[in-house]
Request: fold
Amino acid sequence: MTDEPLLRVSALSKFYGSRVGCDNVSFDLWPGEVLAVVGESGSGKTTLLNCLSTRLLPSSGTASYRMRDGQFRELYRMSEAERRFLMRTDWGFVHQNPADGLRMTVSAGANV
Reply:
């Protein structure tokens, strides 16, 4: 087991004007660990996950991922091609609406 986490999130915040999407979120995700993001409707779960998937840029804070070479990379400083590669190889997201994450015109096997 490594002594460094896979994902480091520090003081991540997202604001929509004066409205708070998520505020000052910090955590480390370790290899083999399962982390659940739970909360009431409107509490910022989707905003947080959209920031971590780089669909949204945070207003402040950082999120770094330990790449296969062992080096940490800031998610928001990666190129679009690097982020796409990461999403296709190391990360997976399960969306609430299946059409957001699946290609509905191909088979289930092709989606995997």
